[in-house]
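Sample entry was shown:

___
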Amino acid sequence: MAKLALGKGLKALIPDESIEVIDRKERLAGNVRGYQFRDTRTGEVGTIGNIPIAKITPNPYQPRLDFDRDALNELKDSIREKGIIQPITVRVKGDGYELISGERRLRASSEVGFKEIPAYILDVKTDQEMLELALIENIQREKLNPIEVASGYQRLIDECQLTQEEVAKKVSKDRTTVTNFLRLLKLPKEIQKSLREGEITMGHARALVSIDDSDVQLEIWEETIDKQLSVRKVEELVAKASIKKKKSTQKGKVAGVIKKDINISEVESILRERLATKVKVNHTAKGSGDIVIQYYSPDDLERIVDAIGNSEV
């Protein structure tokens, strides 16, 4: 069997109908020469080799939402000159293969006119395992925008039943980082789209997500786009909006207390009139409280008790 020429980024064509593969341990050890080849027409797992692009189906769990055409054209130019530097990853699916990661490389290679592409064949048997691996592979290796990363984390939680802590371990990030990305999904769709398209940065988005009011978020976001505000300026606007909201809330609470006091005063007045003594109603914010009724002698106490007992209220 002919040896695979590696002089131009694994861009060699297979001389016959068989698929030449490379032992993964040798590749990871950096031994460019002296690879051992095996005929793997059935798609042997744990190996690297050129496989027909026509036999590769798309990744159904692709986390990437946007493919930048300019970036894809740059990748095509690089592939024309140097070939595929990093193999894609696939799993065996029926008579062909299903893509796990490397869709940009696969698209670019196909558009350049390549018929085959270097691929690492992984042993993935279940769809659940495929989903988890596909998301992790893409999150770790591909240049995803923050919303794509956040969506990938959320899918690992929702569809793979992982906790935030488990997601953090699988993608080699700390839990705080995972949490911060997930918070981005609480932003209005307009702001998420803006972040995906690069109109605002992760710093802008993290500042905006700290506000609970979506209307205020959108207002500051629009000003950010119109005036091309820096992250620091957006943080200042967010801080001012938070202070304003806090003052408004406190004002509302004070107004509420006054209203309650007026109602309580009316109750106290009614009780004083009917019991002919001083009455104090202590009402708490939780809605509970007590009533203090004053008496000045045993006879006065008996009179008040009789008044209460005979009250129609």
Residues 249 and 277 are 38 Å apart (CA to CA).
